[in-house]
Design a protein that fits this description.
about 190 residues; mainly alpha; Lysozyme; 2 strands; globular
Length: about 190
């Protein structure tokens, strides 16, 4: 009986290790190395680029900024108590793309992607493509313009149209960083083989 329990416990541990979210690549600044380590990510992003017109470099820069390639990322903030400090979740944002519940639900309804998960890289890539393509149609922002696409991604398409980012002096420099990272990724992708 004891041996049987030990076997069941070992099997459950093995299943747990197989499930879950993929760990980030060993580097997130070298697109060629990431492509070698995660070829299925790049296959998904090329599919998204073909479907929605959002370049791989813009997708990479957005995911890098939003989640640092951590599939189960959640935004938190530290709250100091009298005797301890704890982290609390700030919003419903989750996954590689940090999509919030309402926008993710809209994406699923609009695209029919019923089994899509925010912690699945291919689904997050498709979500970013859908969102940025929609922003291009509604606000005229090119899917290649990582700076303005990121502002709209952060503020929402309507918030971007109203210019709400102008009231957040810290946000345009972040969007400039996303644009710079997209430019670096694009240059790197030109030099590495598929």
């Amino acid at each position: 009986m004891r041996l049987r329990r030990l076997f069941i416990y070992a099997a459950l541990l093995a299943l747990g290790a197989c499930g879950g979210v993929e760990k980030p690549p060993s580097t997130t600044i070298d697109a060629c190395r990431m492509q070698t380590e995660r070829p299925h990510w790049f296959k998904a992003m090329r599919k998204t680029e073909s479907k929605w017109g959002v370049p791989v470099s813009v997708q990479l820069a957005t995911i890098s900024r939003e989640s640092s390639f951590v599939g189960d990322a959640r935004p938190t903030r530290k709250v100091k108590g009298l005797f301890f400090t704890r982290e609390v979740q700030r919003s419903s944002a989750y996954g590689y793309a940090q999509a919030i519940d309402g926008t993710w639900d809209w994406y699923v309804r609009d695209t029919g992607a019923r089994g899509a998960d925010r912690d699945d890289f291919a689904d997050a890539s498709d979500f970013i493509g859908w969102y940025m393509n929609l922003n291009q149609r509604l606000n005229g922002v090119s899917t290649r313009d990582a700076y303005n696409q990121y502002l709209a991604y952060h503020e929402g398409k309507a918030g971007y149209a109203r210019g709400t980012y102008r009231n957040k002096p810290w946000l345009p420099p972040v969007a400039r960083d996303v644009q710079a990272q997209a430019n670096r990724y694009e240059a790197q992708l030109q030099t590495c083989s598929r």
